[in-house]
Amino acid sequence: MSDLLPCPFCGESVEIMDYTGKPANCFLLLHRCRVIGPIRIEAYSLSTVQAAWNTRADTLKDAMIEVLAEWVDEYKYPEEVKMTVEVLAQAESEARKRMEVTDGR
Fold it and tell me: Of 6, 15, 27, 101, whose CB has the highest number of CB atoms within 10 Å?
């Protein structure tokens, strides 16, 4: 399980718990990030959980950049307005919603 990258937001290392052979019958990664909050990834395959963890930061970052670019294009936020924590939080929320739709959740 050393193939897991540290959390890109808080830098902590993470672990995957093996619940195969138990009622849950899955692999579970649950990380309580100090920066963005809890992250949960669950799948029947260890490699699926590892891949999802190691790529989620880039996917979220790309989705946030897309949302922010659309907002600037639509003039929801004038260019002279600095990107505040609130605006970035809104972009992250919108990006997560879009990712859920594309993931079929």
Answer: 27
